[in-house]
Amino acid sequence: MNATNVSRRRFLETSAVLGGGLVIGLTLPLRGALAHSKGSANTPPVQANAWVRIGPDDTITLICHRNEMGQDVHTSLALLVAEELEVDVDKVEVKQAPVDPVYVNALLGAQITGGSSSVRDAWTKLREAGATARTQLVAAAANEWKVPAADCTAKDGVVSHGDKHRTYGELAASAAKLPAPTNVALKKPTEFTQIGKHQHRLDTPAKARGKAIFGIDTKAPGMVYASLEQCPVIGGKVLSVDDSKAKSMPGVRAVVNIGEGVAVIADHYWNAKKAREALAITWDYGPGVGLDNAKIEATLKEGAKQDGSVIRQHGDVDAALKSATKKVEAEYRLQLLAHATLEPMNCLALVSDTGCDIWASTQFPQGAQGVAAARSGVPAAKVQIFPQFIGGGFGRRLDVDFIGQAAAIAKAVPGTPVKLIWTREDDTRNDFYRPASYHALRGGIDAKGDLVAFDYKFASASVTNRMFPGVTKNGLDPLMTEGAIDLTYDIPNERQRVVIQEFGLRVGYWRSVSHALNAFAIEGFVDELAHAAGKDPVAFRVTLLGKQPRQQAVLERAAKAAGWGRKLGAGKAQGIASMESYGTHQALVVDISKTASGAIRIDKLTYAIDPGIAVHPDQVIAQIQGGAVSGLINTLTAKITLKEGRVEQSNFHNYQLPRMNQMPKIDVVLMPSGDAPGGMGEVGVPLVAPAIANAVFALTGQRVRTLPLADAKLTFA
Amino acid sequence: MATLDINGKVVDVEAAPDTPLLWVLRDHLGMTGTKFGCGMALCGACTVHLDGVPTRSCITPLAALAGKKITTIEGVNGKVAEAVQAAWDHIDVPQCGYCQSGQVLAATALLTKNPKPSDADIDTAMSGNLCRCGTYQRIRAAIHDAAKSLEA
């Protein structure tokens, strides 16, 4: 932390010299913050606080501390600031923040974009940032005019008193000299003029015109390219390499052994890739070489015999099961999945005498700084991270392996910027996979048909154990409890247990993390229980939600919107699923039908969502529409399989993603709410699989308890 | 040395003849609007127009480009492209945005050939373009929206 303090002081000193302004709550390091700022040395922009910068030309800039990967943080977070600052969100420019402790996500404890937490973390913080800056601007104008601040108004970037007006840009320098107010009053939701209203995304025009710069698009003078051959078995190492042929190929500058693989550096990407294919490498495949899916499945099933950690318990589930009229038992399993972001992993790195610069698409700039420091040998204080637009995150870019690789490769050619680009095959075969899982469930129903006992056990590998081992306490990974510990059903006798069972493959956070795993098992099983009780699946759930009015409301709303219970006609069926996740309530009805050839067509997804206050409603809907497609990926055909430790899939022909012609209609009913915002980025994902599996049961009588559904001999139109 | 016609400009490129057009654009010419996704013509992120026909630049070698008019996201223009991009803006189609250059070029080619596409026509023309974020529903709506605006 010393280094940061030094740069903080340096910034404050330099800032005072340049602008004569007092900077409020500022902890931005000099190089990162000012490198991107507008204005000349004579008229620098004023940094009102860590998030708001006001230029002399009235430019309002949000220093956005979360990374944009499609989930709309640039616009949603700009809305929070703009609402209180009293400027039109369209007037806000967004710059990506560097690494700094002030930008730590309080919900996650690090500078991370993930966990559907960006708006929840920023909800008060960024509105306060806007309100603080506005209060100072108003005070500056009031001082100048010698009138009470309370008699001045701020609107559309102008402070006014009677016929006197000053723009924010004109006031910024004097405002920055005033003390920051500590307890600014925030607007009531009824006073919002922008939050909760329709707005366009700030980044749409650039993205529709190929102008958004993703990590893979970054450039630096004298840049060269690297292509990296990694061990075909994850975790293996290079034993030796014959690079004589590669080195003789056109454009090749260097061949670098970085341990987990060998990189060719060349003047152009295509030359680097061709020369890489000419490398002859001998590998130590490591312990992963014998791994396959059958072993993983067996390991998980065996592991599930352990007691694990009890995460939720009340009543006496064993006794209740014993005395139940009907008992139901089931096992559920989920597959390994790759993230398959459309922008393959890549990173531009420059290691020089003065430090290490990293340009990358990353969800974890702080981790990027750490790994780049470790692998370049440059102290972290001299590692600058320039986060870029992310061409798909889904959790893959919480991992920073490719950033460390780029730093290690660039270290071999000091002073030369090197852009490492993985191929699609590299990307598919070197992922941190969504863990396969095993779920054992038991339920008991009494003579009246009421659910009286629910016993659940979930066994899987822990991502948190690998990435943030300090977070795993007493053998319990809190992220593995998601989608289970917050079960909304009121069941008199209940026990839930989680077992961490590693299976020898590295695993990663995949959009919605354990929610998708637990929801598939639990919501599928609840459907089985409804059937065993002889009750309608919606009515059965409604009864269990008596103490959960918000959850009950979304369930009933989804059922109504989808026309649940009406006569559907031959070859058609519906399925339902319901849960709370990230503080957001949702239910989903799926309509499916059988085609003439016997394939199943997913016709329609009808969601009802109660996310609390929707900051940017159209993008809440977009997140559900997109989350639905992530849900379809995990439901229909995609899976990762291993043979002798090698990932068998390589590209989009054997790891298939849904396409336009397979898209169901997606309807989203957004429930009005005055509650604080819940998370949104991952909510659309977890209910797709159970709702479809439940619809398949309704259509065919076949209860599918494994994903992908294609493994149960189902085909999809 | 190869001479290419890119977005109406004559450009000389020094690259191996097997270099895919994608990397000629992105690396040799610094035109990064065209994206790399798969390298096997499976995802459509690298879509450009060759003589107006949507083409996967990741598998199109430099040697095959003589005499062809190449149009990329940086140069696509005219009534149809403008209507497509206006519809993309209006409906806020993109999420991460990485596939959208390819989607816009595929949609522009579709509407140039077929000014009033049905949903089935859209399926046929657009199913080669993956969107990992799942903006398909909005892409479909935006194509219909653009078709409507071109009709007016």
Number of domains of chain B: 2
How much of the residues of chain B is beta strand, in percent?
Answer: 5-15%
Q: Could you give the count of β-strands of chain B?
A: 5
Class of secondary structure makeup of chain B: alpha+beta
The biggest beta sheet of chain A reads:
7 strands, mixed
Largest interface: A-B, 64 and 57 residues
Mean pLDDT of chain A: 93
CATH structural class of the largest domain in chain B? Mainly Alpha
N to C succession of SSEs of chain B: EEHEEEHHHH
Number of helices of chain A: 19
> Which radius of gyration of chain B do the C-alpha atoms yield?
15 Å
Please tell me the total number of domains of chain A: 3
Strand content of chain A: 15-25%
CATH architecture tag of the largest domain in chain B: Orthogonal Bundle
The CATH superfamily of the largest domain in chain A appears as Aldehyde oxidase/xanthine dehydrogenase, molybdopterin binding domain
**Alpha carbon gyration radius of chain A:** 27 Å
Total number of beta strands of chain A: 27
Q: For this structure, what is the CATH class of the largest domain in chain A?
A: Alpha Beta
CATH topology of the largest domain in chain B: DNA polymerase, domain 1
